Amino acid sequence: MIGNIIKTNLILGVRSYVYPIYILIGLAYGLMLMAFPERYLPTMVPIFLLFEPGLVGFMFVGTEIFAEKKDGAIGALAVTPIDWRSYILAKTLLLSMLSIIGAILIMAIGTRSLNGLPYVIVGVFLVSIVYTLLGIAVSAKYYDLDDYFVPIMGVLIISLLPFAHYHGYLTNEIWKVLYLVPSYPGLYFFKAPFEGISTNTLAWSAVALIVWAGVAYYIAKIRFYKYAVEGLR
């Protein structure tokens, strides 16, 4: 069933130009990185990688859900044999795959190299799952992008704070709370092509993102059913 839902979502996403635009954003990020001197790439590439899988995915999944609410597609989940949990998983997996394509474009074009690409792919896949599920959870309550704008900005700001902490700009002990933000473990994967990140650190980062994915799925499952499925009956 998930395979059929993914196929349907892919067709609709291509026809509506949502997914091509998503890929073009990755291409645009890669081209933008070409303007930076090579010494800045270890700092800028991880930021662009977070924007592509995480924050762009967080925004795009919301716009998809708004459109499908208006079309009645989500409301139909309450009266059709399609499992709404499969709907959540299918959308998450599809956007994660698209994020990997975008990340490859960013690395190939922006750095002119694919060194460390396996680290990036793993990080992008896990980060994308977390942020897409969080996007589903948050956007389920809203009906248009105007209402969704404030959560997008909030997630953007919070997700970028770990970069400031990692680079030594937020030194107070209180800022260690940022280790709990999902972009922080993702940052280690995005830094791995440029720095010597230990295998132990990457392993714990993967565990943290998997735990985050489980929490995000649980929240998405509850809120999506409450606000999007049950709320539209």
From TrEMBL:
This is ABC transporter permease. The keyword Lipoprotein does not apply. InterPro entries: FLQE3_permease. It comes from Thermococcus aggregans. Keywords: Membrane, Transmembrane, Transmembrane helix. It holds the Pfam family FLQE3_permease. The keyword DNA-binding does not apply. The chain crosses the membrane at residues 17-36, 48-67, 87-109, 116-136, 148-166, 202-220.
